[in-house]
């Protein structure tokens, strides 16, 4: 049996994926901005939270189920939006959504997917959200919203923290460009040939987007809107004031601003700011089921997973993604039981203490 079929952790999958991918593609998928301090800070923020188990609680039955904007999912783990899955594997986004659906989990599909949103939706058996950039062409932006609604996507996720792509040392060193066989399939007639990913994004994505555009987007359809990339309490409040149904606390996986605050450090202030006015999620450095439990205990409704999904895809296609998602759910369930949490609603702040014992 391969490591991809039976991993102890996502790091087992990462080691296998590293052998499957050319160096410049591995660097693009895994790199961060600048010296990658925020990339490391996201992980360190989880490590700074100790779990404090409760004992003699009946955990003979365990229930990981929750809802995300009304859609029931098998666990509070979701696939974050990531561009160009075909860089990792030829089966690309369709394999990812099949795997997420098979595990009963939510998947968010990127505007810059390497298959069309309709092709991806046709493969889905679980809930899908569509991640959206506000493009310079507002007509094209509206068309993407209409297409997503028609294809059965259940929410729109507006990426707010990438008016331009961050300064990424690894990609600058390699001069990374999309291979000829990978293109943004949702944007007809657009290819990445001859341009870096940053150059391509700068041509397509509108850097003048403001809060007014959140309200505009909210008015285009009846789909709920999640604002992704929020780190400030005031921005979380503005998101809700402009019609957002959810906020994803995210620093773009450390890929935008080197030295930006870690998401788990930003989460408490965001939660305090919005109260129960919207759902709040977190991503960035989620590598273990224990991280998911820490996020829940901190008040997040779900944790979104990014790079490890692409590791699974690179290692073994759909089966590799399923293996990655399963290891999160399995570790989460076992750790919940050991901590005296029979369901996700019982993971509260009393489960946490600052600092990790050596």
From TrEMBL:
Keyword Cytoplasm in record: no
PROSITE patterns: FMN_HYDROXY_ACID_DH_1 (PS00557), FMN_HYDROXY_ACID_DH_2 (PS51349)
One of the Pfam families matching this protein, by short name: FMN_dh
Matches recorded under InterPro entries: Aldolase_TIM, Alpha-hydoxy_acid_DH_FMN, FMN-dep_DH, FMN_HAD, FMN_hydac_DH_AS
EC class (word): oxidoreductase
Signal sequence range: none
UniProt-listed Enzyme Commission number(s): 1.-.-.-
Presence of the UniProt keyword Transcription in the record: no
GO molecular function terms attached to this record: oxidoreductase activity
Cofactor: FMN
Entry superkingdom: Bacteria
Ranges where the FMN hydroxy acid dehydrogenase domain occurs: 2-357
Alphabetically ordered keywords of this record: Flavoprotein, FMN, Oxidoreductase
Family: Belongs to the FMN-dependent alpha-hydroxy acid dehydrogenase family.
Name of this chain's protein: Alpha-hydroxy acid oxidase
């Amino acid at each position: 049996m391969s490591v991809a079929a039976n991993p102890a952790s996502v790091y087992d999958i990462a080691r296998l994926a590293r052998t499957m991918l050319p160096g410049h593609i591995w660097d693009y998928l895994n790199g961060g901005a600048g010296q990658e301090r925020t990339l490391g800070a996201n992980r360190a923020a989880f490590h700074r939270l100790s779990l404090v188990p409760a004992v003699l609680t009946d955990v003979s039955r365990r229930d990981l189920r929750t809802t995300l904007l009304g859609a029931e999912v098998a666990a509070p783990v979701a696939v974050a939006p990531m561009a160009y899955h075909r860089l990792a594997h030829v089966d690309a986004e369709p394999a990812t959504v099949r795997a997420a659906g098979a595990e009963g989990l939510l998947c968010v599909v990127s505007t810059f997917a390497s298959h069309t949103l309709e092709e991806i939706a046709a493969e889905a058996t679980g809930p899908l959200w569509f991640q959206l950039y506000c493009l310079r062409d507002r007509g094209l932006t509206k068309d993407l919203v209409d297409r997503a609604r028609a294809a059965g996507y259940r929410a729109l996720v507006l990426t707010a923290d990438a008016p331009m792509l961050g300064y990424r040392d690894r990609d600058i060193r390699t001069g990374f460009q999309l291979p000829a066989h990978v293109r943004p399939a949702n944007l007809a007639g657009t290819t990445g040939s001859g341009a870096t990913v940053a150059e391509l994004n700068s041509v397509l994505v509108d850097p003048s987007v403001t809060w007014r555009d959140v309200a505009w987007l909210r008015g285009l359809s009846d789909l709920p809107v999640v604002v992704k990339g929020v780190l400030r309490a005031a921005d979380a409040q503005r998101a809700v004031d402009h019609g957002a149904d959810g906020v994803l606390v995210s620093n773009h996986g450390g890929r935008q601003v080197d030295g930006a605050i870690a998401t788990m450090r930003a989460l408490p202030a965001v939660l305090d700011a919005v109260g129960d006015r919207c759902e709040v999620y977190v991503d960035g450095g989620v590598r273990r089921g224990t991280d998911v439990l820490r996020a829940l205990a901190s008040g997040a409704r779900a944790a979104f997973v990014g790079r490890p999904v692409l590791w699974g895809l690179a290692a073994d296609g759909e089966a590799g993604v399923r293996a990655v998602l399963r290891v999160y759910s399995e570790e989460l369930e076992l750790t919940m039981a050991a901590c005296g949490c029979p369901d996700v609603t019982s993971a509260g702040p009393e489960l946490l203490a600052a600092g990790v014992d050596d």
